[in-house]
Request: fold
Amino acid sequence: MSFLTRAVFLASALLFGSTAWADCECGYTVNGTLYTDLMESDFLHIKNTNESGWIAQTYTSDPKMARGAFGKDANPKQIVMNPLKSRYDWAGEGINGGDAGAQVIVKGGDPGKGGLIPMGEMNTNRTDVLYGSFRAGMKLTGTPGTCGAFFWYLNDTQEIDMEFLSQQFNETSYPVNLVLQSQASVAAGYTAENTDAFQVHQLPFNPSGGFHEYRFDWFKDRVEFYADGVLLKTMTGMGVPSDPGHLALSQWSNGDPKWSGGPPAEDAIMTVNYVKGYFNSSETQRQKDWENRCKDINAPKATCEVPEITEPPNNNASAKTFFFSQQHNMTVNQTIPSGNPNNAQSGAWSMRASMQGFSTSLFLFFLVLFMEWLS
Reply:
């Protein structure tokens, strides 16, 4: 083999060998399960809902449709972004005072007979979410008369809920309602209470006393519910959803004494400091994108493990949780909203990673030439 042939061969091996051009290009793993896509929202630093990857909902439902004594009035005014005062802070008051984060508000006071209760709801703009691991850092309201929820939704027969009824909180009881809405719950009058896809689980902490992480992992055959990293319940059966949908955050009241109660006597605020989702996309283009960027799933750093929290994210040092989107070169070809000033610019970093990889390989190419010339 000639000098030039050997040099080209060795340089090509270096340039095109089994190397990940960017970290996490093949996806993110949770307990060994690989997910191709991610959504991360750091509400401690986001100022504008429109740039967060979420859409504040606008709709009304009369008491009959809301299945309560009062109807619902969802409007963007009930979603208030209250980020920390500095992009470099991870604890402290928000710019409007009080707990920092996205505030989801139910307006207090009696709306009158048959009136509508102003409430807040926001959904992810991505509706291609099919199986994954989803977690939210939240502080629930202590004002009785609302239902606060972190959930995944397609329709009334395919829904995964973690719901908190503030009228249930007292000095000895802090429950979370774990629910899979299904055909069976619709047939039972839009309630899952008498199905095997419902459980009231007592938490060892007060959800209105501080921030905690609530999570559900959705598989083809089951849904696992967690609080602060501790498994609460695994649900299986026909209630497990099978089609893509979106994530949602909401807090509402309809005056139903058996569920939300209310309306609350004063404004009730649920505060969210982050939502993170690691999932598979149902969109063909997103699947092709993954195939194009994931050249070798076994290459070093081609997949990245999602860190688990070790303590509640409760407005102190622990509130600085890990975001892939805030790291350099870990979200190549991912959809990263522009609203967080701390997000690494994934497109720019992707290009920089490629240039760095090319520059390194070019250096090695000339090094190989030099070594061959010396020999």
